[in-house]
């Protein structure tokens, strides 16, 4: 079986979607059923896919596409370049690592798409003027795909809420992201080597409104003011820049936390693993998420965890986390949760089989197997269609 994973994406630094695509490739390559995984990325992504992620399987072939990194060029490539590549490589299945626009009639094999969240509907402010286009592309991808996999029950519920008329014959399922640091050697982050000799708190998230990083910074400042944290404590924020970057920088300056709050991005798996293993506490204060791989990673590495009391975190974290309420006085609520967590003994947690590589691989193979019964029909329908050149 040959799976082609489409992961060509705008960011020039690693994001959650990139990590998902890598994890998908690695878990498929670990099975005997899959003989090849073709991972398709943009030319601008090649350096961090090779340096930040652990591509250690001979089955995984990285194909980088040399186009301009702008929305018009990317979308034109999705429409026409991707089906041409599929015709050339002839994979058994195409797996879209995130929703992108495409015409099903131009593909001679089944197409599966992963739905991470419904942000274009739930948080359109994350996308600015592009929100309308993102909605249209999401709608088109959902209706054109032969199968859909959601990363959580929470995401599936949102999908059914915003798209109640999805064809009941369309294969739709939940497959959790998996976590596996078994082959990763922790390595200190060089740029913070001389700043992290003191205790530090850790959070991970792109600089977007729903991540509530401003709330965390304010709570951190409050704890320092109340002497509930040593003055030498740092807050490390790992994540790429976004719409909230300027506001966060301004807030840090207003609170005089330039030396205490450290913002970094584009780190390797080894550096990320080291941060998880050495932080005093991992904190995720988001108001909405599709899954949140960092939460599962933190639990895998036995971090003490504080997170907001939203359905997806309760689904993933179960009883392993301390939760705080985003209503009423969220700054106070988060501050109290942080204090409570730091006063608890640090114990190793049992790893959740829901997020194991073997479980994810097995579920993906079951999904592809269900798709197989439609292959002959889809192939015959596509015989009369060709990709325009």
Molecular structure report:
With 389 residues, the chain is an alpha/beta fold. It has 2 domains: 2-178 and 357-382, Rossmann fold (3-Layer(aba) Sandwich); 190-342, Rossmann fold, CATH 3.40.50. It has 14 helices and 13 strands. It has a 7-stranded parallel β-sheet with strand order 3-2-1-4-5-6-7, with helices on both faces. Strands 10-9-8-11-12-13 form a 6-stranded parallel β-sheet, sandwiched between helices. Strand 9, helix 8 (245-254) and strand 10 form a beta-alpha-beta unit. It starts with a strand and ends in a 7-residue tail after the last helix. The mean pLDDT is 91.
Could you list some keywords that capture this structure?
six-stranded parallel beta sheet, 13 strands, seven-stranded parallel beta sheet, 389 residues, alpha/beta, 39% helix, Rossmann fold, 14 helices, globular
